[in-house]
Amino acid sequence: MDAEYPVAGSQGATRPLVRKKQGMKAIVHAGGGPDGLSLCDVAEPRAGPGERLIEVGLAGVNYADLIGLRTGNNFLGGRPGDAIPGGEVVGCRIDTGERVVAICGSGGYAERVAAPGNQIFPVPDDIDDATALALFIQGLTAWHIVQTLGQPIKGARILIPSATGGVGLLALQIARSGGAARIVATTSSDVKSEMALRHGADAVIDGNPESFAARAIEANEGRLFDLVLDRSGGTLFAEELAATGPRGRIVSYGTSSGQPGQLSTASLLAGSRSLAGFWLMDFLDESAAALHDIYALYRSGGVRPHIGLTLSLSEAAAAHSAIAARGTVGKLLLNPKGTP
């Protein structure tokens, strides 16, 4: 027999009871790339020790999910063999009805998911579900690579590659709100360039590694950069380092090229440059405070997430293909309630 649980609405109003079903819809990965994703009927999850069940309102689609399909590690707690992808969700706790965002590690592409209690955070009543999810993993990443590891920001000249992705677009706005003197962004199309300029970039260049440092410096009025945000590694990393000025900082938060950047420590000595790595899971204890600051910046108009696509759960493969083709801007979301 189905059990019923009270759930609060998105603005604090009472919603009809959530009916806890014996089974649910979920995306299952059978192997390979996006073509291996399919909508299936599966048993609903059971909460383990310290976990809470969440009725999923929206699931976030991140580049880390694509990495997880290839390697079994999405860097959010997913493990090899996890059949249901998806590392972050917004929804309602089934036991209390509280609206929350959560890092679930895996299992997020589903109607319900279990998540560790220390990776669940409340959503204020004035923040809608889509905004909350867009400001969650990508917002926390952008906040920490700029405000935590990138300081000082005020008066800094900053280079932000892939500036219209989910992280890049938020990092651009956070840096602008923090008083950056000049921001140079990289994009891959005219449409994306226009978006970066609208969100605070002073100049935009193509992200092709060839002659990248020279083009970035030219766009920066002939000056080297105080802060560079690296998400790709690979051959571009050496170009980014060459564009970094004395006492400048590189914050590396990804290897989207598929290859790590190569570095000789001797290249940091002259100029007293520094390199910091970032992994969100190392900052979980600071997430509640950071989300409070991010929500405050959102309320003041200092940051506005861009929701690129909201698709039904059954369209997960299309969402992954769009990210792989670098044809997206902003945040991608999957809606279990839009699934037949």
TrEMBL record:
InterPro entries: ADH-like_C, ER, GroES-like_sf, NAD(P)-bd_dom_sf. Keywords: NADP, Oxidoreductase. One of its GO terms (molecular function) is mRNA 3'-UTR AU-rich region binding. The keyword Glycoprotein does not apply. It holds the Pfam family ADH_zinc_N. SMART domains: PKS_ER. SUPFAM superfamilies: GroES-like (SSF50129), NAD(P)-binding Rossmann-fold domains (SSF51735). The keyword Oxidoreductase applies. GO terms for cellular component: cytosol. Residues 32-334 form the Enoyl reductase (ER) domain. PANTHER family: QUINONE OXIDOREDUCTASE PIG3-RELATED, QUINONE OXIDOREDUCTASE-RELATED. This is NADPH:quinone reductase. It comes from Rhizorhabdus dicambivorans.
